[in-house]
Design goal:
The structure holds 2 protein chains of 2 kinds. Chain A is α+β, with helices and mostly antiparallel strands. Chain A has 24 helices and 21 strands. By secondary structure, chain B is mainly β. In chain B, strands 1, 2, 3, 4, 5, 6, 7, 8, 9, 10, 11, 12 and 13 form a 13-stranded antiparallel β-sheet that branches. In chain B, strands 14, 15, 16, 17, 18, 19, 20, 21, 22 and 23 form a 10-stranded antiparallel β-sheet that branches. The chains are: A alpha+beta, B mainly beta. At the A-B interface, helix 2, helix 3, strand 6, helix 7 and helix 9 of A face helix 1 and strand 4 of B.
Chain lengths: 832, 373
């Protein structure tokens, strides 16, 4: 084989491309597939890249890797605490934090730092080593630093010192001198927190406690799971899009087989032919990638505010609302599109390379291999499903904390295996149908046989539809199930009507005052602190301790997942010195009721027996529940929240309002703000939690819907691409006297039938997917398992959706058939 | 063909939409408000300014810079030589504003405090630095009783009744610390013209007095090993509003205890003087054992570097010849070891020296402004 001169290549390429001039629909479909695959993928990647960049900036922020120091009695810190510690030689640094409301209702975080005492290594502590910039920082008119993406917002604030750009800062964050922050936030002598470098091992006065930076809930892992979720969605969309591309390329090749043979017969070397086809792919790929990335950025731009809000609400990580895309993002987008295109086009190139010059007239020869191809697909798909089963079994047997990547691998095996099995299964179904249809229903017989014939062309679109439908169903049930469980759990955990968080000094007064009120039925005090968990003499790090009052109302409602004997026994065990642990801790440490663990209390090492495990959705950390009195005496936990359960009354709202007003007047407690608010209404709390929840899954839902839309498009484009060929097959029926309206109905019916079959197969697959999501992915990502809920209404909706998609997709070709003049049908009949 | 046209149109529309949605390039800079500083000036050190004590032991916030500068030459029972430094610097970042700003908070201050502590052992050199803003109480200086502090470092009256002549000083770094009692055996010494010390040929200068007669007892701690020490210390007090003149690059500053009981303070400000090369400004004080001061001018004093060594990447003269003809002094001053570099935010060489020649003795040498090689 030899390559011909460039001129031949050019002519060959031109000849090949001329095919698309005659069939622009195919070009459209090809570009559409590429466009969609690359748009969704690059959109998701843009979101991820942008968020990661925000995290990197947040982590570079001074406070991120510093230990915190708080007062043991839980009181607010003041300048005097700072001075006392500094004069004792402790290298602590004060930080004042707060929110500045913008005119548009949003807010910016304001961080006031003291650069002179801030532990070194932090970007601001270094102050560029420039005495002038330090001077500007410390004296009027001062400076405020802000990230470029938040500059415009900062400009809307009045009374700010001159702004300085600092690209290293996280978004929506202003950093300034502590003197400015104290003025803007009216802090006077108050300090939000004291920080100390983790490597400084110093003796703290007993009035203070230190929290290591590692113990502060790290959003990293959680946010990572969130992004992995997004990536998986993007990948699904990419695969669906590539299915379309594959279908389009296959069609384009099949229709050009004759052309290829002619070209070969004219003396174009095979290598030149392949080169020309490769160039064609490259051209398509670059165009598609360009389109896809442009619209991916648009998509990301539209979704990012939601993503940012979700991450902020869920993990308290601030993500910039504007896109910041690193250079590798663009390269990655092009590479994945081209890679996908070539993987989809490889079979086309392979087949084109083996074109038999002599096999003219056997254009449809490959259909003979259909059966063996179906069998191969079934075999391969079954192998993947077996692999998925093995992986499931392995993951189930390991039990504890699992690898999230393995979970997603399981999902991928499941989906791919099922998709591969779909065409053989559909073919089998149609075969059965054909056998049991009444002989006299000739038209029905014909349409089933015809559908069987169409299957090779339709199968890829059907596979895409199957993936999209089952993903839709799976994610839908997971979100729905989570919603039910979560709301239920909120109801069980939020028993009190009102939560009061008094200061240390007020606590006892307030408690006794509340106890005397007639409208108060029960008080549920809580405290929290942390302690080092020791396992096998190894310090495995701090865990959260949560103290509750085991009042009857709490004992009735507090949800428990697993106990040694029964609920009552568990509660009496708690009163006698046992503990409850949350599911996260149980999974992480492999603990079960009856096991023991060791905690380092301020006084000594205590061994505790686990009496029960409780669900703790939304908490990233391991937690231990003890009676509140014990937490106060043995662990020196500061006073925490008082839950107020109202006595049964007819006008709960009014009683609550009265109580809140009385509290405000008597103890000067106010209910404004969200952080450190001393009064929280239970309903407000529930509403907040629910909002966070809804937001979390808004994006998942949006991407899901998009994927389904893409699958519908795949179906439509497939049908459009073969509409002309189909007409040639329908024309004889028309010639036999079947009316056009019946023909149209038949065609719609065929497609509805195929889609219905796909949807029916998607139901078990979707349920399996839900199972994987709640039992494997959730456990790996968040540390808790959700009960599996099945929503029949949702399943029905999915099936209906599939039918809708089928009808919509069939409508355009059907409408065209309807409009075709009989003369043309006659011509096509003649040609067929 | 029409459809092909439609596809290309779609493509163009996509590009245009994309362009619209494209993330804005972040603007590279923001304009500074262009607000200049208030035009208020710092007070200048002038000849004829009278020193009054104990008031002048305290801070002078109207001047730009000021320091309380203690150096000590110590010896352990086993004969090992130690050197200590304890310095508190005050710097005003802006002239104080006569109208108190209504928006001031407890954190508002124009005063910046910086402290350096160092301990030189016969082989090594340990140092540490601290920073604090004024106003909050983390650092400051009070008189009656005298107390100069930053964090847990302090130089203060030994008890509530003691004046400036009985002090105690303490500082801790990561791997060293000291706690010393100081007792003055002589009077305060005013340099230059009754405390006005000229710093360049054009007449600008600083207010400058010293207590060079401290006897020291106490304990130094190196790597958690406590060592009892005795020795002599020298406390400099100086304030001014003029940092180095525009052409001055740094200084070499000697404070020497001679075995005769006399003391010598001498400095060379490099690059702005009126000596024969027109390069450096020299000045000093000859202090008799009784505390009588003779100001030394350029023609009385000769400071000659004899040997340079590479320290912290710079060539530093660690060996000098010091001559004061009028008092028949011709000595070599040699660093006890060259590695007494203060690698602080504003780095310099400061260390114990030994004196040999016409007179034996010891003291401290400070050298600043030697450029990186």
């Amino acid at each position: 084989m030899s390559t011909a001169a460039p001129g031949v290549l050019r002519t060959t390429l031109g000849t090949l491309l001329s095919h698309y001039r005659r069939h622009p629909g195919q070009l459209l479909m090809l570009l559409l597939g590429l466009w969609i695959a690359s748009a969704l993928w690059s959109g998701v990647q843009a979101i991820n890249a942008s968020a990661r960049e925000s995290y990197a900036r947040a982590e570079a922020l001074f406070s991120a890797d510093l230990d915190r120091i708080a007062r043991r009695d839980g009181a607010a810190l003041s300048l005097d605490d700072y001075l006392a510690l500094r004069r004792a030689g402790l290298p602590v640094s004060p930080i004042i934090e707060g929110e500045l409301s913008l005119p548009d209702g949003e807010s910016l975080a304001l961080i006031g730092i003291e650069p002179l005492s801030l532990p070194g290594g932090a970007p601001l502590a270094q102050q560029d080593g420039d005495a002038d910039s330090l001077r500007n920082w410390l004296i009027p008119p001062y400076r405020v630093r802000v990230a470029p993406d938040s500059l415009a917002k900062a400009r809307t604030l009045e009374g700010l010192p001159p702004l300085e750009i600092d690209p290293d800062l996280p978004p929506a964050t202003l950093v300034t001198d502590i003197a400015v922050a104290a003025r803007l936030l009216n802090m006077d002598r108050h300090i939000t927190r004291l920080v100390i470098a983790p490597e400084r091992d110093v003796e703290l006065p007993s009035a203070f406690v230190r929290t290591s930076t590692d113990a502060l809930a790290s959003p990293g892992q959680l946010a990572d799971s969130f992004h992995l979720n997004l990536t998986a969605m993007g990948l699904l969309a990419l695969v669906v899009g590539l299915f379309i591309v594959h279908a389009a390329l296959g069609l384009a090749l099949e229709q050009r087989l004759g052309l290829l043979r002619t070209l070969r017969a004219l003396g174009v070397p095979a290598r030149t032919l392949i080169l020309a086809l490769g160039l064609e792919l490259l051209l398509m790929g670059l165009t598609g990638a360009l389109l896809g990335i442009v619209s991916g950025v648009i998509l990301a731009q539209l979704l990012l505010p939601d993503v940012a809000a979700t991450l902020d609400a869920l993990y308290e990580t601030t993500v910039s609302g504007t896109l910041n895309l690193p250079w590798y993002y663009w390269l990655g987008g092009v590479a994945i599109t081209l890679g996908g295109l070539f993987s989809a086009g490889a079979s086309m190139l392979w087949r084109a390379a083996r074109v038999n010059v002599l096999a003219l007239g056997q254009a449809q020869a490959w259909r003979a291999r259909l059966r063996s191809q179906l069998r191969l697909q079934l075999l391969f798909g079954a192998a993947l499903l077996v692999g998925a089963t093995c992986l499931w079994w392995y993951l189930a047997s390991t039990g504890g904390q699992q690898d999230l990547a393995l979970g997603f691998a399981l999902v991928a095996l499941l989906l791919l295996g099922a998709a591969l099995c779909l065409p053989p299964l559909l073919a089998g179904l149609l075969g059965l149908l054909a056998r049991y249809l009444p002989r006299r229903a000739a038209l029905l017989q014909w349409s089933v046989a015809d559908l069987q014939l169409q299957l090779p062309q339709l199968s890829l679109a059907m596979m895409a539809l199957l993936l999209a439908l089952s993903a839709n169903l799976g994610v839908g049930s997971m979100v729905g199930g989570f919603r039910l469980t979560f709301l239920d759990w909120l109801d069980q955990r939020l028993l009190a009507d009102l939560y009061v968080r008094p200061s240390m000094e007020q606590f006892e007064d307030l408690e006794s005052w509340l106890q005397e009120r007639s409208e108060v039925a029960t008080l549920l005090p809580t405290r929290s602190t942390e302690a080092e968990l020791i396992e096998n003499d190894v310090n495995v790090g701090p865990v959260a301790l949560f103290g509750i009052a085991p009042e009857p109302i709490l004992r009735r409602h507090w949800p428990l997942l697993d106990t040694l004997e029964d609920r009552e026994a568990a509660w009496s065990a708690l009163n006698q010195g046992a503990i409850f642990i949350n599911e996260q801790l149980a999974r992480r440490q492999g603990l079960a009721p009856g096991d023991t663990l060791q905690l380092k209390s301020p006084a000594s090492l205590i061994t505790l027996r686990v009496a029960a495990i409780y669900p703790d959705y939304g908490n990233p950390r391991g937690e231990i529940v003890l009676p509140v009195s014990r937490l106060a005496t043995e662990f020196k936990a500061p006073s925490g929240t008082l839950g107020v359960v109202l006595a049964p009354t007819e006008d709960r709202a009014q009683t609550l309002e009265r109580l809140q007003n009385a509290l405000r007047q008597r103890f000067l407690l106010t209910g404004e703000g969200t952080d450190g608010t001393p009064l929280i209404d239970q309903q407000a709390l529930k509403q907040m939690a629910t909002e966070v929840f809804e937001r979390t899954f808004a994006i998942t839902r949006a991407l899901n819907a998009l994927t389904l839309g893409v699958a519908g498009l795949a179906l439509l484009t497939t049908l459009l691409a073969q509409a002309e060929a189909r007409r040639a097959q329908v024309a004889p029926l028309w010639a036999l006297g079947v009316s056009r309206s019946r023909l149209v109905l038949l065609q719609i019916g065929q497609l509805v039938m195929a889609c219905l079959g796909t949807a029916l197969l998607a139901i078990p697959l979707g349920l399996l997917l839900t199972g994987t999501l709640v039992a494997v992915i959730n456990v790996a990502a968040f540390g808790w398992r959700l009960p599996l809920h099945v929503f029949p209404g949702q399943i029905a909706m999915t099936v209906a959706l599939a039918v809708m998609v089928a009808i919509l997709a069939a409508l355009i070709p059907a409408w065209r058939l309807w409009r075709v003049p009989p003369r043309q049908l006659l011509q096509e009949f003649a040609a067929a | 063909m029409k459809r092909l046209l439609a596809i290309s149109l779609l493509f163009i529309v996509m590009l245009v939409i994309g362009w619209q949605f494209w993330p804005d390039e972040p603007p590279s800079t923001t304009s500074y408000a262009g607000l200049g500083e208030s035009s208020g000036d710092f007070r200048q050190a002038l000849p004829g300014t009278a020193l009054t004590f104990p008031k002048d032991h305290g801070p002078h916030p109207d001047y730009r810079i000021e320091w309380w500068y203690l150096t000590g030459n110590l010896v352990a029972e086993d004969g090992r030589r130690f050197g200590v430094q304890w310095t508190l610097f005050r710097q005003a970042m802006a002239p104080s504003n006569p109208q108190q700003d209504a928006s001031e908070t407890p954190w508002t201050s124009r005063q910046l405090w910086m402290a350096h502590a160092a301990l030189s052992t016969p082989e090594r050199h340990h140092f540490s630095e601290r920073f604090a803003r004024g106003g909050v109480g983390q650092a400051g200086v009070k008189t009656e009783p005298f107390d100069a502090w930053i964090d847990n470092w302090s130089l203060r009256a030994a008890d509530d009744t003691a004046g400036f002549e009985r002090l105690k000083v303490t500082a801790q770094g990561e791997d060293f610390g000291y706690r010393l009692a100081l007792e003055a055996e002589g009077p305060l010494v005013r340099h230059g013209k009754q405390g006005f010390s000229q710093k360049s040929a054009d007449g600008q200068g600083s207010m400058y007095y010293s207590q060079p007669f401290f006897q020291v007892t106490g304990e130094v701690r190196v790597d958690n090993e406590p060592v009892a020490v005795t020795g002599r210390a020298w406390l400099d007090r100086e304030w001014s509003s003029q940092l180095l003149g525009a052409t001055q690059s740094g200084w070499d500053w000697f404070s020497l205890h001679l075995d005769s009981g006399a003391k010598l303070m001498a400095f060379r400000l490099r690059g702005a003087g009126d000596d024969e090369n027109g390069e450096s400004y020299l000045s000093g004080s000859w202090i008799t054992p009784e505390g009588e001061v003779t100001p030394l001018e350029l023609e009385d004093l000769r400071l000659t570097p004899l040997e340079y060594q590479s320290v912290a990447g710079r060539d530093i003269p660690v060996h000098w010849r010091v001559q004061v003809h009028a008092h028949e002094l011709d000595v070599e001053v040699r660093a006890r070891h060259p590695d007494q570099w203060m690698g602080t935010s504003f780095p310099y060489w400061e260390g114990m020296v030994e004196v040999s020649g016409s007179n034996e003795g010891e003291g401290y040498l400070e050298m600043t402004g030697y450029a990186d090689k």
